[in-house]
Amino acid sequence: MQTPYPHYRLALTVLLWLPLSTWAGDQSATAPVVSGGAVAFTVREIATGTNIGGAKLDADIILPPAWAFGVLHGYYTNQAGILRNLKQLEAGDFPVDAIWVDSAFWDLTTRGPAGYIDFRGDRGAFPDLRGLTGQLERRQVRFGIWIWDRVLDANPEAFQEFESKGYFKPGQIVSNGWHNAGLQSIARVVDFSNPAAAALWSEKLRPFMADGVDFFKMDAGPQTDYLRTHFELAQKYGRHTRGRGFILTQSARDSLADIKRYPAAWTGDAQSSWHQPDYPDTSRWILGGLRQQIEMVANPSWRHYAYPFLANDTGGFHLRSLEGAAAEELYIRWAQFSAFGSIMQVFGAPRVPEQNAPFGWPAAVQQNFRRHTHLRLQLFPYIYTHALLTRLTGRKMIQGDADHPLQYRFGDAFLVAPVSEPNVTKRSLWLPEGERWIDYWTGQSYSGGQEVTVPAPLEHLPLQVRAGAIIPLRDYAPSVLRGNNATLTLDVFPDGATEKSEFTLYEDDGTSNAYLTNGFAATTIACQPGPSSVALHIAPIQGGYDGKLTQRRWKLRLHLAAKPAGVRLNGKAVRWKYDAQQGVLLSDWKAATAQASEILIAR
């Protein structure tokens, strides 16, 4: 459960995404130059560690590890339950990149006060933690546990040790029923600003890291020292980290610096409902329904918008207020929205069936979840590029405007318009002016600068693509770490574009902080449409990182209204085919990543 923090207007929201050096006091930095929505670094800029405009990369920024951009799952269960749930996720072909155990890790039966926090965990529920994490590791699934900032006196050994050393915050005594069945215990909050207290806490959690815990799902306070203590634990001692570290925390911070350093947050314990009309009055519910979750992501007037990487409890945390087909529709729409978020997690309260896991729903709901999460995993190269750009340039992957608070741009290519009402089959949305837009599912083309009504069947999320967009996709794998970028499909939309467009693919090792000192690579893809031809240029890869690919297979999906006359690769005719039903030209080839590819499509 999360302490409620009602939204408020940020008068200086527009300042949040200036170049990162501006936050550090460099007022001479200028905004990065953007071409086609993506920043392209030159060889010199990669070599010198500066971004366009001359701003130094911010060494204070920590990007979440690559696996965090897949699909994360949380449960209240025991060791056997985790393995059972993992088996069901795999059998249902649902992506799973990480699993955490929420507060049940400390006391599965009553969830407190016994075990909160005794630094042992519920050993009856988790008799072989290292064996469990080993099984997850073999499937490339990362593991985390829930934590908070206090100890209850129902755990006298731990409580007395911290109290005797003066490691609790003075006056911080909590006696409510949160993880305190029967109200027989009190909790005291640890003073993490005291280095000795933070060190003792870390020492007591280190054995869990040694047993394979990679990250923490953090509840309670937003204080800097509390966040830093757990982030550094994950960063230094997570079994699979190479310095990146990961914590998933409440969407509350003491400073903008904390937003940068500890960027992954979740919105709070939302109600499983479409809408909370009285939000942010939390006397009835906690933190809104689906509509409010969308607005937290998309509306710059809300404080949550400042977070570069923001998740929500897919399906709603609290017990379902709907049943049957109505509940299924809400879950489908929620999962569609979450799949097009910066971080996706699936979670629900202990009384919510299966904690909202997709395998707990009927077959049609499962298929819808599968369709959108498979697309998310395929879009990993695109999503991770924009995640890196968030850190390299300060521009978030999600951009919204307060005039249209229930839609947002997802990177440079997509306009996402989630459905936030029941029984909807059409959706009105505003198309940004100055560009042409294409319905991702139907191919219908629209001029920008107007409100349009588009199809919104339950089968898919309303999704528009900017004309000229170049979207890289990888082959589907059930987790980010089990996939790779060795084969990339370029989904290109030249029709309706009148000028050259570009997309620069950014890659790194996914786990270290080497990207802060030039440890990343850039591959720029440019498309030049014309009346008689379409030219596609893939530049040689620039820069490098540990594990950089030297060969790549490219698959081209070029959306054209009419069958082309021919295709040439580097001046030579190549095999291709045209799918008239979908209006797509298909071709593929292999090339060294250091080699340029020139593709000319004659109309």
Provide a compact summary of the structure.
The protein has 603 residues and is of the alpha/beta class. It is built from twelve helices and 32 strands. The strands form six sheets. A nine-stranded parallel β-sheet has the order 10-9-8-7-3-2-1-12-11.
Task: Give structural notes.
The protein has 603 residues and is of the alpha/beta class. Helices cover 22% and strands 24% of the residues. The protein has 12 helices and 32 strands. Strands 10-9-8-7-3-2-1-12-11 form a 9-stranded parallel beta sheet. Strands 23, 24, 25, 26, 28, 29 and 32 form a 7-stranded antiparallel beta sheet that branches. Strands 13-14-15-20-17-18 form a 6-stranded antiparallel beta sheet, with no helix packed on it. Helix 6 packs parallel to helix 7 and helix 10 packs parallel to helix 11.
Question: Strand order across the biggest sheet?
Answer: 10-9-8-7-3-2-1-12-11
Largest sheet: 9 strands, parallel
Distance between the termini: 58 Å
Q: Which shape, going by the Cα principal axes? A: globular
Proportion in β-strands:
15-25%
Number of alpha- plus pi-helical segments: 12
What's the count of strands?
A: 32
| Helix/strand/pairing category | alpha/beta
What's the alpha carbon Rg, rounded to whole Å? Answer: 24 Å
Residue-averaged pLDDT, rounded?
88
Give the helix level as a range of percent: 10-25%
Q: Low-confidence runs (pLDDT<50, min 5 residues)?
A: 1-55
